[in-house]
TrEMBL record:
The keyword RNA-binding does not apply. It comes from the Bacteria. Pfam families: DUF1304. This is Epimerase.
Length: 129
């Protein structure tokens, strides 16, 4: 179960790296505007700095999970699992906030939170077994 949880954590991390890319690098692109519903390039420009900052939050959560996976693979299981839980747990908490706070964004919250939920659940079960 631990290995499955770490695989889910890796998928969650890569999703959050992609979100980082959209928010911090490609915010004004057609793909990012469609994904986040910002409309025109001009509208995207007004929120570019906030999106840039938010993208780095997503990157740091992803890196936390990735470093946790690497630490676990290197034999530091307590450190690795702690970091993987911290990264994916924070991703899950952010998705829950989005789900609760914004009905129009619930689909995005589910997409953002599905793999972190699977990671947290699998890791938790793996530790109990």
């Amino acid at each position: 179960m631990i290995v499955a949880g770490l695989i889910f954590a890796a998928v969650a991390a890569f999703i959050h790296i992609y979100i980082f890319y959209l928010e911090s690098i490609a915010w004004e692109s057609e793909r990012a505007r469609a994904a986040f519903g910002t409309g025109s390039v001009e509208e995207a420009r007004t929120t570019k700095f906030m999106a840039f900052n938010q993208g780095f939050y997503n990157l740091f959560l992803a890196l936390l999970a990735i470093v946790g996976i690497a630490a676990w693979a290197a034999g530091a299981s307590a450190v690795g699992l702690t970091l993987a839980f911290a990264g994916t747990g924070s991703m899950l908490a952010a998705a829950a906030v989005l789900f609760i706070a914004s009905a129009p964004h619930r689909g995005a919250a589910v997409k953002q939170g599905a793999f972190p939920l699977l990671a947290v659940g699998s890791l938790g079960l793996g530790l109990m077994l």
